[in-house]
Amino acid sequence: MIPVAIMGGSGYTGVELMRLIAGHPQLQLTAVSSSQYEGQAVEAVFGALEGGLNLSFTPHDPAALAGSARLAFLAVPHKAAMAAAPAILAAGAKVVDLSADFRLRDRAVYEKWYAPHSAPELLAEAVYGLPEFYREQIKAARLVANPGCYVTSVLVALVPLLRAGLISPQGLIADSASGVSGAGRGAKLNLLHGEVHENFRPYSVDGHRHTPEMEQELSLAAGQEVRLTFTPHLLPMDRGILSTIYAQAVGGSDEQAVRDCWQRAYGAEPFVRVLAKGRLPETKQVRGSNRVQLAVARDPRSGVLKIFSALDNLTKGASGQAVQNANLMLGLPETAGLTELALTP
Questions:
Q1: Is 80 exceeded by the pLDDT of residue 190?
Q2: Of these residues, 149, 235, 242, 329, which one is catalytic?
Q3: Is 261 a catalytic residue?
Q4: Whose CA is closest to 80, among 46, 33, 44?
C-alpha cells in the first residue's frame, strides 16, 4: 500500500477524497489535517466514513504530512495551497493541488483573478491535471494542478474539436449549472436550503474565476487566442454539473463529425462516454462516478452546434480526477479506485 495524505479534510472535496481512498486497492491514507476539526476522529465528524478510516484530524503541518506520505492532496483554498506546496515538495513528497494556485501558467493572470502568488517559481513546473490531454506529463510530474470542475466539463467537450478545426474559436458560449456542493461546505446565506430549494439562478455574471483557466487551455488547443463567454448557474441539488456550449461549425461540420472526432480522441479513454445520436447527458447518470458524458445536437435553423457535457463536480470535477492524477504519478493503474458506476436514483 502506498501512503498518501490530505491537507484539508473538512470540505466536500476532502471528504470525497477520503471516501475514494478508503476504497482504493493500493492507496492508504496515513494523515488528514483540518484546523476546524483538529484532534477529532474522522468518523465522528463524517459518519458516512465510519469503518473506513481509523484516523483523527491533525494540524495543518505540511512537513509532517509529507513525512507520512509519498503524495499529498491539497484540498485547501487558494493561497493556502501555494503556501504549503513548497515545503511538501522539499520534503520529497509529490503534490496534487485541488485549488487554483498552480493552474494558470501566467503569474499576472493568476494575480488578476486571485491574489499575489507566493510560489511563482513552481508555476512553470506544475502540470495541468487533465489526464485525457496531459497523461505523459502527469506521469513524470511531482506537482499537478487539478483542474476546476466547470473547466473540466467545458475542456473535455471542446479541446478535441478545436484541435481538429471543426468549430470556430470565436463566439464560444458556455452555460454551466452546478449543484451546491461546488460552492464549498462553509456556511453561507445564499446556500441555505430556503434560498436554494426550488430556485435556479446565475451568478458571477461579470466574470467567474474559472474563465481564464478555460481560455488558457482552449487557446492552446486552437493555436490562437480564444475568448469564452461563460455563465455559471446554481442548481438546487447536491452534486453534478451540466454544461451547454454553443459553437459555430466550420467547413460544414455536423453532429456526426463531432461524434467521430470525440471517438478518435476518447475511444480508449476510461472515463469519457460519447453518447449516441438521440441521447443527451444527465447529471444522475454520472452521479458519484468519475465519468464525463458528451453529446451534440445541431440547431436546424441557425446551424449552431449545441454541445452538452455532464459530470459529477466532486468526482471527475475534483477528487476523482485528483485520484486519477495520483494513480498516474505513482505508477498505478489509472482507473484504480475509480471504477464505481453512477448512483441511481
A1: no
A2: 149
A3: no
A4: 33
What is the sign, positive or negative, of the torsion defined by CA atoms of 231, 234, 239, 244?
A: negative
122-126, long-range: CB within 8 Å, 24+ apart, which pairs? 122/82, 122/85, 122/86, 122/89, 126/97, 126/102
Q: Which DSSP state fits 341?
A: P
Determine the average pLDDT of the residues in 327-343. Answer: 96
Cβ 88 vs Cβ 75: under 8 Å: no
Question: What DSSP state is assigned to residue 96?
Answer: E
Question: Taking the model in full, what pTM does it have?
Answer: 0.96
Res 45: pLDDT? 95
Please tell me the number of Cα atoms within 13 Å of 179 on its side-chain side.
21
Quote the CA–CA distance of 136 and 129 in Å, as a whole number: 11
Homologous superfamily in CATH for domain 2-125: NAD(P)-binding Rossmann-like Domain (3.40.50.720)
CA distance 200 to 231: 13
Q: Where in the chain is the domain with CATH 3.40.50.720?
A: 2-125
Q: Domain 150-313 falls in which CATH fold?
A: Dihydrodipicolinate Reductase; domain 2 (3.30.360)
